[in-house]
Amino acid sequence: MPTANSKLPTDNLTRCTWCGTDPLYMKYHDEEWGKVVKDDKTLFEFLTLESAQAGLSWITILRRREGYRKAFAGFDVQKVAAFTDEDQQRLLQDEGIIRNRLKVSSAIRNAQLFMEVQKEFGSFYNYLYSFMPGGEPITKYDGPKVSTPESDAISKDMKKRGFKFFGTTICYAHMQATGMVNDHIPQCAFR
Predict the structure, then answer these.
(1) Is 190 a member of any domain?
(2) Is 3 part of a structural domain of the chain?
(3) pLDDT value, residue 7
(4) Which sequence positions are flagged as catalytic?
(5) Which residues does the chain have with pLDDT short of 50?
(6) What is the CATH number of the domain that holds 43?
(7) Residue 44, in any domain of the structure
(8) How far apart, in whole angstroms, are the C-alpha atoms of residue 184 and residue 140?
(9) By residue range, what is the domain housing residue 112?
(10) Fewer Cβ atoms within 10 A, N terminus or C terminus of the chain?
């Protein structure tokens, strides 16, 4: 939750506190978090990772990101959507990911649903931004939060479509990660 600042002894940059001083977390904060993502492949990657994160800390997933990339065919949505029961069994043995049967099966089903949304809206990006005011990212920092009316609406619609592990809190984290909302604190050097 971005509330104060975090600095490395080797720099004088102010950062959001949530990234602490873990180099992996700081790199993610500095280079990815809050930056607008328009390509569907990256949006699918974050959908998969954020869904896996449900009930866990983000750093737990971030440390397994390469394992997920390898296990889920480089986040190629068409390949993941075509995974078989045999693939699911393989994933449940993969120590590089969270081996939760419901999360693994939902990742495969979410890939299939992701493709349905792409067909309907032209892209998953178009779908997500259809919920945003004026179809644009929210850039005004309005204090720390875990959900918004937009994340409520997106997660409700996705649930209706059959997506799993994507409630409003996970949806809002996805929005933060992919720059749909810029929640870097005003003092953050990376805002």
Answers:
(1) no
(2) no
(3) 54
(4) 28, 50, 58
(5) 1-4, 9
(6) 1.10.340.30
(7) yes
(8) 10
(9) 17-177
(10) N
